[in-house]
Recover the amino acids of this structure.
């Protein structure tokens, strides 16, 4: 972990810094199931941020139950139950986790709402940390499916492959498929059907909460896709080349979507604003084409940063096509897209969708 840039986790609107212990570093090396040490919160809890359903049970105690994907049960329990016992001792609660191989809610019982809330927050931090180590399975996307943009993109691809100087090392497999051009809003790991259903519902909730009102304020959203940029600092050693998109209403919607999904624990916050972009060339496309790669976020998640990435020299492309105009499109849909998938129209399979 970079001590100058520690991992941050958000629950609701509260930000927590997560420090790796030596046992967690061993987990990263040997994929053992340890849980992160979370720095003690020195501030009072803000109960206004929490909407936990805490009820009285038959024994007169208070309890809350909540969904946790079964893949994360072991992280809550810890090696020989050490994590669960520690949490129970520190919060004076009882934690009930479904048996291995079964599904069900995690239950926290205690004598006070404050204790139950504190324990559930700690568990959610553990789950969020474990989720952030998983490979991405889904992403929020905006399809760029207008005929103008697809046609101009194909021309752009052909010009690069045919008009650049001889000896230029570029293969068609590095290019995004025209049918899968899109803007990526945020990436996430959805571990089971409950996760997927929740994420799809969150997208619908966002539509009612702020997407409709933003469109009512600004009118139909139309974007122009143009101008090239790259992800790193050296144009001669690039792994992702993308086209820029600038739109005030779409930026507002994208930022609010990210905030909402971060608050619900399905997305890790990494930046203050979503970078609206359309990936055109990605060095990983060739490596994973058979798996239908193509939804990589503009910055790689920390658990993917050690993956090998080939580089390509984009200097000639930027010199000749830096201001290439791919065209204009009216934004009509936002998808919860499934990675490594292909729908009948050539785009990604949609787990959820809202029409604008």
């Amino acid at each position: 972990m970079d001590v100058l840039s520690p991992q941050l986790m958000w629950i609701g609107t509260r930000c927590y810094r997560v420090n790796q212990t030596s046992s967690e570093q061993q987990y990263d090396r040997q994929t053992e199931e340890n849980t992160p040490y979370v720095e003690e919160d020195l501030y009072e809890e803000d109960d206004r941020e929490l909407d936990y359903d805490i009820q009285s049970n038959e024994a007169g105690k208070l309890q809350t139950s909540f969904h946790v994907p079964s893949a994360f049960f072991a992280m809550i329990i810890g090696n020989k139950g050490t994590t669960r016992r520690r949490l129970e001792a520190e919060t004076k609660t009882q934690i009930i986790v479904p048996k291995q191989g079964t599904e069900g809610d995690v239950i926290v019982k205690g004598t006070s709402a404050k204790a139950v809330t504190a324990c559930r927050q700690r568990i959610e931090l553990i789950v969020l940390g474990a989720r952030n180590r998983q490979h991405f399975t889904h992403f929020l996307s905006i399809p760029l499916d207008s005929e103008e943009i697809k046609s101009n993109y194909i021309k752009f691809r052909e010009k690069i492959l045919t008009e650049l100087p001889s000896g230029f090392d570029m293969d068609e497999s590095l290019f995004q498929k025209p049918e899968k051009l899109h803007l990526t809003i945020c990436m996430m790991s959805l571990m089971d059907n409950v996760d997927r259903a929740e994420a799809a519902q969150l997208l619908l909730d966002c539509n009612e909460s702020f997407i409709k009102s933003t469109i009512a304020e600004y009118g139909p959203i139309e974007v122009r896709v143009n101008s090239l940029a790259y992800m790193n600092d050296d144009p001669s050693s690039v792994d992702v080349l993308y086209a820029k998109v600038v739109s005030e209403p779409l930026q507002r919607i994208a930022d609010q979507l990210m905030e909402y999904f971060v608050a619900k624990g399905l997305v890790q916050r990494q930046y203050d604003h979503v970078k609206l972009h359309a990936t055109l060339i990605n060095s990983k496309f060739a490596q994973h084409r058979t798996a239908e790669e193509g939804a990589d976020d503009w910055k790689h998640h920390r658990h993917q940063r050690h993956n090998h990435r080939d580089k390509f020299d984009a200097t000639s492309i930027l010199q000749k096509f830096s201001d290439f105009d791919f065209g204009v499109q009216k934004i009509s849909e936002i998808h919860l897209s499934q990675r490594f998938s292909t729908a009948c129209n050539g785009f990604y399979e949609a787990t959820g969708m809202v029409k604008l």
Remarks:
- Confidence is low (pLDDT under 50) at residues 20-49, 290-295, 297-306.
- The first helix runs from residue 22 to 30.
- DSSP finds nine helices and 15 strands in the chain.
- The longest strand covers residues 222-230.
